[in-house]
Specification:
Blueprint lengths: L12 H11 L11 H14 L4 H9 L10 H6 L4 H10 L7 H10 L3 H12 L2 H4 L4 H17 L5
Length: 155
């Protein structure tokens, strides 16, 4: 009798959270808060919006490659579903990429819109923006509103 080769099991959400928290350790957001708070808020937002485990995992990792917290090679080799990896790559901004191309990639990737919607919702939270200077608050508010419009997220 021959043994079937075992494939590595997929990381649990708890393992993904631990990995994301470790990757972003010491990093803070624009308001000086630990960056992991943003990751947690986006993951919770995805869950609250009816997202599945693959989307929640992507939410934890949504900024990891973009922020160089984890490498594209790590993501490629990680024990994650291809859908989770696709979502992470879809929401990862590329240097010099026009917002229209970024939005089109998100819209073309199943499951990515919900993750980006949750990310934008937390980024645009008035309580988070209130601690920023007026010029930064205005610039970010306009940036997030434009991306919401490009993604067809109204309201």
């Amino acid at each position: 009798m021959t043994e079937t080769p075992r494939t590595p099991s997929t990381l649990t959400l708890a393992q993904v959270e631990t990995t994301a928290r470790a990757a972003h350790a010491g990093q803070t957001d624009k308001a000086g808060r630990p960056y992991a708070e943003h990751l947690q808020a986006v993951a919770e937002g995805v869950r609250a919006r009816g997202g599945d485990d693959e989307q929640i995992a992507a939410a934890w990792l949504h900024d990891a490659v973009e922020d160089d917290a984890l490498s594209p090679e790590w993501l490629r080799e990680a024990a994650l579903s291809s859908r989770t990896k696709d979502i992470v790559l879809a929401v990862t901004k590329r240097s010099g990429e026009p917002p229209e191309a970024y939005a089109a990639r998100i819209l073309a990737t199943p499951g990515a819109l919900l993750v980006k919607e949750s990310d934008l919702a937390h980024n645009a939270d008035p309580a988070r923006l209130a601690v920023l200077d007026e010029a930064t608050r205005k610039r970010l508010t306009e940036k997030y509103a434009r991306m919401r419009a490009l993604l067809g997220l109204v309201g």
